[in-house]
Design brief:
With 418 residues, the chain is α/β, with parallel strands linked by helices. 25% of the residues lie in helices and 19% in strands. Helix 1 packs across helix 11 and helix 3 runs parallel beside helix 6.
Length: 418
């Protein structure tokens, strides 16, 4: 079997399904477990820190681990950095067969910090029977020193190991998500997969194939540079309430709204005329009126960008680029679509009519993580966004896992927009 610790909603599992394989995931969050079950993934709902290792001895080919990143992430308080010496001590003790977790946990500033040491408990016990054949682990960049400690121990057990930082955008993910990666194998030289994409497209040369340009949000979502985000159905609603969006990229039209709700543009927000001195009065949605009257709709003089959170230093990326790292879980971390004038204003020219900012939908966020647009997320909006933000992008995961499984990915293995 392939054992997936901290399996979440199934980023690694989705990648394995594309590669023709399956894992068994250990996960404690009930909503992530419900998502996994709906997606057809084998799951044990449990606390990884409490579950015994003996059921896996003599049966495990590969081990995957993406410990919770909240204690280390820049989106949180980063108490894991304070706890780092304690985590290193736990890894060292577990590698020697000494379980000091209880004593060390009492000294931690964040109870989640020590979860990054849990994979070593499984690895130590599996190593006693010559398993696993390979290991793949992923975390936020600040965990790289810990992965290097793991690497020293794994090499002493006969593994070839590589550790480093990879950018998900270099592997076709429409997001510049940087992650600390550990790759280890007993049967092959561990090395990072060759990048398939670059910030600027690279032509093929005598020394190897070229690389495509980074995948933009517009390309992933199936939008044009000035498209409005996808329309929604107002009737019914998703698991967390509110409108239930169509899959990203959809261009469906309703022939009968009596039973299916009212067709409205998304975002569901009034257009605003914003001046240089501040927002002005709400303006009528001219484009909708023109379209309803059968007249051509003029091209908008604004374009969409994605703002990563509400903070002053938020990352803002236009649709023509990949998104910044998507993370959720706190109100200040909400991602919103913002419309910006397509060109600077000249003199006293009146500012263009632009839509008000609106939140990204779960389907859009999932697609930007390279999940299918119809992925069966379970839970309310907050629970779903938390799952999406914490997941490994399946497309990155597939590139990391393919060499272990003797597979080769093709450009058609992932379809970003429905």
């Amino acid at each position: 079997m392939i054992l997936d610790l901290f399996a979440g909603p199934g980023g690694w599992s989705r990648a394995l399904s594309v590669l023709g394989a399956q894992d068994i995931g250990l996960e404690w969050d009930q909503w992530a477990c419900k998502t996994r079950t709906a997606a057809g993934q084998l799951t044990i709902q449990t606390d990884v820190a409490m579950y015994p290792t003996w059921p896996f001895l003599g049966r495990t080919r590969g081990l995957i681990a993406s410990p919770p990143c909240q204690a280390w992430s820049m989106a949180g308080k980063r108490l894991g950095l304070i706890d780092q010496p304690l985590v290193h001590q736990a890894v060292s003790d577990l590698a020697a067969g000494r379980d000091t977790r209880e004593a060390l946990l009492g000294a931690c500033q964040d109870v989640r910090s020590l979860l990054a040491a849990e994979p070593m408990r499984y690895l130590h016990d599996l190593n006693s029977v010559g398993e696993p054949e390979w290991v793949t682990m992923e975390e936020v960049p600040d965990v790289l020193p810990l992965w290097k400690q793991y690497a020293v121990i794994l090499r002493s057990w006969g593994f070839s190991v590589w550790t480093g930082i990879l950018n998900a955008a270099d592997y076709g993910v429409p997001q510049t998500r940087r992650r600390a990666i550990l790759l280890a194998s007993r049967v092959r030289t561990a090395q990072p997969p060759p990048p398939t994409h670059a910030q600027v497209a690279e032509p093929e040369t005598l020394f190897g194939p070229g690389r495509d340009r980074w995948v933009s949000m517009a390309e992933a979502l199936g939008w044009g540079a000035t498209d409005r985000p996808v329309p929604t159905i107002c009737a019914g609603g998703g698991p967390g309430g509110g409108a239930e969006p169509f899959p990203s990229g959809s261009r469906k039209a309703l022939s009968d709204t009596r039973d299916r709700g009212t067709w409205t543009p998304h975002p569901d927000a009034p257009l605003q005329r914003s001046g240089r001195a501040g927002a002005g009065p709400a303006a009528r949605p001219v484009a909708q009126d023109e379209q309803a009257a059968g007249r051509p709709v003029p091209e908008p003089d604004w374009s969409w960008s994605l703002r990563s959170n509400n903070q002053a230093h938020a990352t803002v990326r236009p649709l023509s680029e990949p998104a910044g790292t998507l993370f959720f879980g706190h109100r200040s971390n909400e991602c919103t679509w913002v419309a910006e004038p397509a060109a600077p204003l000249a003199g006293d020219a009146e500012s263009p009519v632009v839509p008000a900012p609106i939140r990204i939908t779960a389907q859009e966020a999932g697609v930007l993580q390279t999940f299918p647009a119809d992925y069966p997320w379970a839970g309310n909006k907050g629970q779903v966004f938390s799952q999406i933000g914490n997941a490994v992008p399946p497309r990155l995961a597939a590139h990391l896992l393919a060499p272990h499984l003797g597979k080769t990915l093709t450009p058609d293995d992932f379809t970003l927009a429905a």
